[in-house]
Amino acid sequence: MNTKDSLRKKISLKRKSLSKKERLDSEKSLVQLWESVGDSYNTNKVALYWPVNGEISTISLISNFLKDGSECFLPIISQNKKNKILEFALFEIDNPLTNNRFDIPEPRKSTIVDLNELDVIFLPCVCFDSKGNRIGMGGGFYDKTLSQLSNNQKTQLILLAYDFQEVESCFPEGHDVKADACLTPNQYLNFKD
């Protein structure tokens, strides 16, 4: 088992073992911290993820963005199993979510936004390090997709995680895309500074 795999296994188990109260408290703290730093970001078009497998919840963030008039988008995976490029579909309250082949809820195909039009993409992760690297679930979907961003793009990539998901190193590889920042219930890390 390589080091990425062992980290993925260890942190995923810890994440799944959190109590409902710990999850709710973390989500509340995450939103409060975002409210203190979010003004420095343009949030007209925001991509988030629907939380699964113990990921820190984005539900309150989505609700707040919608209340503030932002458009929220969720990732959709291709029916073609060889295609690892995510599309981001508009999330609308009255458009029910359906589970994809990984059992992850996603909008029924609705308005798809051009990746380079997104102001912020909030990224899930299994773990992250102090340089903005992340380890995901291992499918490579986000790295493949984010590599499509144009070099002069202004899209901000922000990791969302629990504090315990920070590790010394994510053992980055050449194809890994770094995040610009990370938000946890207790800290905001700007990797560009």
Could you list some keywords that capture this structure?
alpha/beta, Rossmann fold, two-stranded antiparallel sheet, 4 helices, 21% strand, globular
Q: What ranges have pLDDT less than 50 throughout 5 or more consecutive residues? A: none
Structural class, by secondary structure, is alpha/beta
Shape: globular
Counting DSSP E segments of at least 2 residues, the number of strands comes to 12
Strand residues, percent: 15-25%
Range of helix content: 10-25%
Biggest sheet descriptor:
8 strands, mixed
CATH topology group: Rossmann fold
Written description of the protein model:
The chain is α/β, with parallel strands linked by helices. The protein has a single domain, classed as Rossmann fold (3-Layer(aba) Sandwich). 24% of the residues lie in helices and 21% in strands. The chain has 4 helices and 12 strands; from the N terminus they run ααβαββββββββαβββ. The mean pLDDT is 93.
Structure at a glance:
With 193 residues, the chain is α/β, with parallel strands linked by helices.
Helices and strands in order:
Elements: H1 3-16, H2 20-37, E1 45-47, H3 59-67, E2 71-76, E3 87-90, E4 97-99, E5 105-107, E6 112-113, E7 120-123, E8 127-128, E9 134-135, H4 141-146, E10 156-160, E11 181-183, E12 188-190
Parallel strand pairs: 1-2, 1-7, 7-10, 10-11
Antiparallel strand pairs: 2-3, 3-6, 4-5, 8-9, 11-12
